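Predict structure. Input: Bifunctional ligase/repressor BirA, 233 residues.
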Amino acid sequence: MSDSPVFPPLLTGAQAEDPFAQACAEARQGCDAGLVLYNLGPSVLQAAIVFAPEVPLARAMAMLPLCAVGFQNALGALAPPEVGVHLAWNGDLRLNGAICGQMRAAASDTDPHHVPDWLVVAFHVKLLPQSDTPGETPDVTTLYGEGCAEVSPVELLEAWARHMLVALNRWDDEGAGPLHKEWTGLAWAMGDQITYGDLTGDFTGIDENFGLLLKTDTTTHLIPLTDLLEPAP
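Output follows.
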C-alpha cells in the first residue's frame, strides 16, 4: 500500500503540518471546495476538508456531524467488530467509551443566518499512547490501545473520505433526515446527564439543525451547533 492516500475524484489531497490551520488559510485564499489536507503523524492522524456552503451556516454546520458519521463508518468497517465507535455532540470521537479524537470546525462567517464563503471541518485521532502511563487517564484512549493496531492511518483516511462523500451526496439528495437518524443512533450519552459550559441537564436529543437539547430542572435549552465553531487560526 502507498504511503500517500488516494482520494475520490471530487477531492484533492495534500500534506500539511497543521491541516486545520492550513485549510482555513487556503479557504481564505479562495481554494476549491473538496481540498483535504492531512498529517499522517507517527502517533496522531489529522485531517481537514474545505467546504463551500450554498446554505446558511445554521444548516451548513451539518457538515460537522456528517464528517463525524463518515469517520464512524470508516473506522467501523476497518476495526475489529468488538470495537464500539460513538460520537459526542461536542465533537469528541469515542472508542469503547473513551475519547480517542475530536472533530472541530471554523467558518468565514459566524452568523448562522448568513451563507459563509467557506467552512472547514477537521478531525484528529490518536493512534498511539501519548505517555508511558495511559492508565492514569482512563477517559482517554488510542486506536492501537483499543485493538485497532492493524488499521492503517492511510487506509482510515481514505475510507473516511469515501464514507464522507457518500453521506454528503445523500444529504444533498435527501436532506438532513437520514443523517439526523444515523447520527442519533451513534450519539454518545443520549438520554444521560451531561454538562455543557455552565449547564448540566439531560441530553434529550437534537433539533433539525443538530442543536443540542439539554433539559434542566426549569427548562429545555437549545444550544446551536454553531456554538462549536472555533476562531479560524
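The radius of gyration is 17 Å.
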